[in-house]
């Protein structure tokens, strides 16, 4: 969906890399907040629901997902948007998280 949104908005990706990158990060943080909030509602608590996933893990999984999906259109995103995502995934803390989720995601 992200690719189609960017395409329909007519945004020049190379000139708006920071904006798009920040939007991706906000969407991932929002997803984590919603998961935590939903795990605390009355119905979830009544059925024993809980959310133990750390925010750093959600950020890594989301960043990895966006990087994987946007990499399929690398001719559009390679020189701009994929670089900051790849950089985040290459940080030492990301390497530790990658090891934890090795069986869950493809590299």
Q: Can you describe this structure?
A:
By secondary structure, this protein is an all-alpha fold. The protein has helices at 2-9, 17-39, 42-46, 55-71, 74-77, 82-90, 92-100. Helix 2 (17-39) crosses helix 4 (55-71) and helix 4 packs across helix 6 (82-90). The protein is globular, with a radius of gyration of 16 Å. The two termini are 21 Å apart.
How would you sum up this structure in a few lines?
The chain has 107 residues and is mainly α.
Query: Which spans have pLDDT < 50 for at least 5 consecutive residues?
Result: none
Mean pLDDT: 84
- Could you say which structural class the secondary elements and strand pairing correspond to? mainly alpha
Amount of helix: over 70%
Number of helices: 7
The ordered string of helix (H) and strand (E) elements is HHHHHHH
Distance between the termini: 21 Å
Largest sheet: none
Q: What Rg do the Cα atoms give?
A: 16 Å
- Coarse shape: globular
What's the quaternary structure here? single chain
Please count the beta strands (DSSP E, at least 2 residues each): 0
How does the SSE layout of this entry go?
Layout: H1 2-9, H2 17-39, H3 42-46, H4 55-71, H5 74-77, H6 82-90, H7 92-100
Helix pairs in contact: 2-4, 4-6
Question: Which structural traits does this protein have?
Answer:
mainly alpha; 107 residues; globular
């Amino acid at each position: 969906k992200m690719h189609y949104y960017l395409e329909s908005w007519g945004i020049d990706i190379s000139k708006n890399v920071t904006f798009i990158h920040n939007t991706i990060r906000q969407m991932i943080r929002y997803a984590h907040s919603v998961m935590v909030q939903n795990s605390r509602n009355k119905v979830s608590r009544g059925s024993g629901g809980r959310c133990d996933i750390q925010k750093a893990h959600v950020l890594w999984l989301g960043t990895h997902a966006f990087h994987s999906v946007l990499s399929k259109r690398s001719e559009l995103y390679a020189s701009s948007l994929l670089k900051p995502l790849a950089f985040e995934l290459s940080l030492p803390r990301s390497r530790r998280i990658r090891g934890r989720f090795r069986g869950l995601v493809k590299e």
